[in-house]
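Handout for the seminar on molecular recognition.
Each group receives one record of this type.
Step one: identify the two inputs.
Step two: read the structure output and locate the region that could contact heme C.
Step three: write two sentences on what you found, then compare them with the reference statements printed after the record.
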Amino acid sequence: MCKRMTALLILTAIFSTDLGLLSAASSSSSLMQISADGEILVCTNRDSGTATVIDLKTGQKLREISLGLKPEGLTFVGQSHQCAACIYGDDKVVVFDADSGKLSHQIDVFDEPYGIVSNHDGSQLYVCLEYPSKIVVIDSKTGTVNRQFDCGKFPRGLALADDNQTLYVTEYLTGNVISYNVTTGKELNRWPGLSTDNLARQIVLHPTLDRAYMPHMRSKIDVAHGEGSIFPYVTIIDTKPTSDEKSRKRIPMDSFRGTLVTANPWECDLSPDGQKLYVVFGGTDDIFVCDVLDDNYRELVYSDYIRTGHNPRAVKVAPDGKHFYLYNALDFQVVEYSTQTNRPTKAIDVCEVPYSEEHRTGKILFYTALQPMTGRRWISCSSCHPDGDADGRTWQNPEGLRNTPSLAGVAWTHPLHWSADRDETQDFEHTIRGPLMQGRGLVQGRISEALGAPLSGRSPLLDALTVYNNSHKFPLSPYAKEGLSASARRGRSLFFSKKTGCAECHKPPFYADSNPIWPGKVHDVETGNADASELMGPKYDTPTLLGLYRTAPYLHHGKAATLRDVFVIHNPNDKHGVTSHLNDEEIDDLVEFLKALPYEDPVPAAKAAGLKKVER
Ligand code: HEC
Ligand code: HEC
């Protein structure tokens, strides 16, 4: 054999082992994954509670597996066809065989498992619990929880480096990135975001460069305006910082290609050779294909722009680099694209639409940053109410500071807004047409400025938006899984005592008092003076107390950082229930009770009491 030939063979050998390593090196949580051998794709379908397995050779759906309420993060277990998924709504992690569809383990965790990754040989799974802010380490063979450790706040994105030791975690509501040693649970490094960074769900590691890429947005709470409140970004982290200054760079995705604005970056993925980054935008229904540069300066440059189906939430590049796959959540489809042409080559239905067409239409409207909802493409309803949750923000609205509420159970707790000025979701037509969203709106023609004038029945689209908006259910509090603790029971007695008077306004089953009357009942509980910009106080709607445990900060102005502060700092004259007679332990008990709400499904009691839910 001639020398050149040998050299070539050695080179190819090095090259192919490298590739082999690359495709299996790091692991990043996503709702869609491709097996290391490139044979199958598996995705979780949040709304239908299932996972779908697709044969990538034939493009056929092989099977759909029922998993539970709101499956989210998914991973292959090492190089196998075993999968593990986080069932966010059922507080469990399930391990299943994608080839047979059989479940091998169901592992209970405390609350809200979201992201999951596997180590290289598949022996360990690392799961983040969002609200509890923990990493749980699971033995995948036995399905037992080995240990857990604390991690940041509201973690969602997870990526495990190829050393199988360093775990990168994104905080959902701050965009902070923190790395941990998975064996010791010790924090290794931290890349803090700006105070405006928000909704960071996912992070991926580059196969060869010391870089991690995190799609997210920014919420500029002092701008209640369509241009200037919500911005899309990809943040790039230097994973091996050499100095104390943790390098972190934000690439704006609304000026990446001229003036083309994209909204709500959801997930991203790198090609196996690390040369391309694909970023999906759930708000503007599109993707940027970016060239990855190793220049420490520009980092990403524009390569292509692709319009997609409805609400793309994930993208994955196949290990051979020939195709990438897109998950269009509200089309309930996976679409295959050629990486050569960036054109779609196949579309595969993953599940049935799990609700009415009207609900689906409403959900599409809620998630879109396009007309007729939004004029300037930056913002959708879901930018502040992602999946109906709060965004952890208090916005400076024209009428004063307003803490974003969760939309859980909102069908039962009308009227709407802290000031109870809206009697129906259809009134959000004013938000759509107003300065915040600047959309054309869903009703034909002019609408009355008066909020009391009914808009229900004026537009099928607006009614559909209402149906979706009113569909969110109250999740049960994780603090009451074993029933109320002794402390929470003492707190309950205090809450229902004549002396504190809490239940005069916060009446079970929803712990509110205005269901559904119009005009809404409002009360002055002396919280109206803390904000100089307030124009509507001092009377406010009695908010529901169900689900409070995860919705800090509190009160309409968001100035109470904890539940304790609501009484200890913001109730100096006993105008908000009587609490000055309570000692420290009693306040603790009251807080324990509030954290345990709801400890039972409030709906049967509501029906028995003749309360009516607003559906449209
Ligand atoms: C910029 C962030 C932002 C956007 C965009 C946004 N909201 Fe909100 N939403 C808020 C805040 C803050 C509040 C609390 C305001 C208040 O009570 O006065 C709120 C309150 C609500 C409420 C009342 C909940 C309750 O329990 O009283 C509903 C319903 C709602 N929004 C739906 C929508 C819909 C539908 C859209 C899109 C048309 C939308 N929001 C767009 C931030 C936002
Ligand atoms: C007179 C009616 C009334 C009474 C009595 C009352 N509340 Fe409230 N509660 C309200 C109103 C109105 C608000 C909203 C105030 C605001 O946001 O500024 C509120 C807000 C709250 C909040 C914050 C909720 C959130 O989502 O931010 C908590 C917690 C709370 N109340 C608990 C209690 C407890 C515990 C008691 C008894 C010690 C009590 N309340 C007594 C009317 C009442």
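Reference statements: Residues 1-24 have pLDDT under 50 and may be disordered. Residues 418, 495, 500-502, 504-506, 523, 525, 527, 540, 542-543, 545, 548, 551, 554-556, 563, 566, 576-577, 579, 590, 594 surround heme C (ligand 2) (CB under 6 Å).
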